[in-house]
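Let us practice reading a record.
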Amino acid sequence: MMKVKFIFLLLLFCVSVMSQNSSHSGRLPWVEGSFPAKKTGEFEYMIARGEGKLLINARENAFDSFLTDLGNNAGVTVDSRTISEIKSNMNYSGNGSTYEGAQHFMSTINIERGNFKASFSKVGEYYEYENGVYHLWELYEVSPRGNSFKPIIPEYTDHYGLSAGWKSALLPGWGQFYKGKTVKGAVFLSAEILAVSGLVYSEMRRSDNIRLSQETTSISIIKEYRDRADTWALRRNIAIGATAGIYVWNVLDAALSKGKMRYAWIPDNLHLNGSQESGNHYIGLTYDF
C-alpha cells in the first residue's frame, strides 16, 4: 500500500511539472474551436492557418489562404492578382513579431469585386515555433454580405482567481478540472481517494487488532495483536499526513497555478495582450487614460 501511495505522489509531481511546461497549455480558446461571444448575425468567425520559416511568410500564407477561403465561401475564385490588389489597398504589413505588432488592421476592411462583397477584420493571432517553422493561426470576423460592423477584440487570461481554489477545497481536483487541467485534476482526485482509503483501511485494521487483543487472555497473543495495532496506527498516521498534504497541495495548486487560456471580458480601457515565441508565453496589461 505504501508503495502505491509513493507512486501516486510521484505521478502527481510529474504531472504538475509537465502541465506547466506543456507547449500547448497557453493556446488561445479560438485556436481550439471556442469562439468569443458576439451579436447574432453581425458577423461570422473564420480561422486562417499558415506556416513559414519566417513569421512574415507564415502571415502572408495565412492571409492568402483566408482570402481564398473567403472567395470559395462566396462561390467565386480569388486569384493571385486580386489578392495582391487587396494587400496593396490595405497597406498590408507583416513585420511585427509580437501580438500587438501583428495586429495589421483592426478596422473593418471592405472588398467589392463584381458580385463578390465582404467585410472583415483580423482580431487575433497565435503562433507556435517548432523545429524551425512558425505554425500560425489568425482569427477573422467576417460579414459575407459586405455590411459594416464593429469588430470585437477578444482579451485573454490564464488566471481564474480564487474560484478554482474554493472548488478544489470542496472536492480535490475540481479546481484543476475547472481550469482545463484535466490530467492534473484526475491525479489529485485519485491520490486523495487513495490516501483516504488507506487511512480508513488502516484504522479498521488497527481497531480489529485492538478488539482481538481484548478477546484473549494469552499474554503472547495480546502482545502480538498490540504490536500489529501499533503498526497499523503508524500507517494510519502516515495516511492522515498524506491526505492532508495532498489536500493542501491541491487547493494551493488550484488557487495559484495558471490554467488554460480563456476569454477575459474586461473594461474597454484595459487591454490584455499575449503572445508565444520559442515556447515561451508573454502577457501584458495596458491601461488607456
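A brief commentary: The chain has seven helices and eight strands.
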